[in-house]
């Protein structure tokens, strides 16, 4: 997940901050795009699993380079700080690049739930973490763990 401070709009009512949310963990590709939201201090923005409350603003809206925003994330309650030059980033999930050499197959950017067909069987990715991928063979429900170990 990435939160970015895109711009600041000021008027006689005060400052509104344009903060974008990008959630690469979303199931549908259309839901992974960067979506802008307008927020003022104390305002809750977005949905339960995809939102935040703008808690405080440190600095002046007139000088965006020194401005820091403190947000509270709705899904975890975690505090996030972001500025114009430093977006907030959190790893919510992983994707994997896989290959099956005997058939010359390659899959890029695969996520949990992806179907992979190789060796005469249909497989589904049931888990991915920092260094492992777990596949489930549909034919016999056998799980196979693939471990990533980079070459020295």
Characterize the biggest β-sheet. 4 strands, antiparallel
How many helical stretches?
A: 0
Structural class: mainly beta
Radius of gyration: 21 Å
Separation of the first and last Cα atoms = 30 Å
Strand line-up in the sheet with most strands:
3-2-1-8
Are there runs of 5+ residues with pLDDT below 50, and where?
none
Shape verdict = elongated
The fraction of residues in strands falls at over 45%
What is the element string, with H for helices and E for strands? Answer: EEEEEEEEEEEEEE
What do the pLDDT scores average to? 91
Q: Total strand count, please?
A: 14
Q: Considering DSSP H and I runs of 4 or more, what fraction of the residues is helical?
A: under 10%
Task: Report a brief summary of the structure.
Helix content is 0%, strand content 55%.
What topology does this entry show?
Blueprint: E1 2-11, E2 14-22, E3 35-39, E4 44-47, E5 50-58, E6 68-73, E7 79-83, E8 88-89, E9 96-100, E10 105-110, E11 115-118, E12 121-128, E13 132-137, E14 143-147
Antiparallel strand pairs: 1-2, 1-8, 2-3, 4-5, 5-6, 6-7, 9-10, 11-12, 12-13, 13-14
Q: How would you describe this structure to a colleague?
A:
The chain is mainly β and 152 residues long. It is built from no helices and 14 strands. The chain has strands at residues 2-11, 14-22, 35-39, 44-47, 50-58, 68-73, 79-83, 88-89, 96-100, 105-110, 115-118, 121-128, 132-137, 143-147. The two termini are 30 Å apart. The mean pLDDT is 91.
Give the tags.
four-stranded antiparallel sheet, 14 strands, 152 residues, mainly beta
């Amino acid at each position: 997940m990435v939160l970015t401070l895109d711009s600041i709009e000021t008027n006689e009512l005060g400052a509104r901050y344009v903060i974008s949310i990008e959630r690469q963990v979303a199931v549908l590709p259309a839901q992974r795009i960067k979506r802008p939201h307008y927020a003022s201090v104390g305002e809750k923005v977005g949905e339960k699993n995809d939102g935040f409350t703008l808690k405080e603003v440190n600095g002046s809206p007139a000088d965006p380079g020194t401005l820091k925003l403190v947000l509270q994330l709705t899904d975890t309650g975690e505090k996030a700080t972001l500025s114009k030059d430093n977006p907030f980033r959190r790893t919510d999930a992983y994707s994997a690049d896989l290959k099956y050499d005997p058939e010359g197959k390659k899959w890029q950017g695969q996520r949990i739930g992806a179907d992979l067909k190789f060796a005469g069987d249909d497989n589904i990715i049931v888990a991915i973490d920092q260094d492992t991928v777990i596949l489930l063979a549909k034919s016999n429900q056998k799980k196979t763990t693939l471990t990533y170990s980079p070459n020295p």
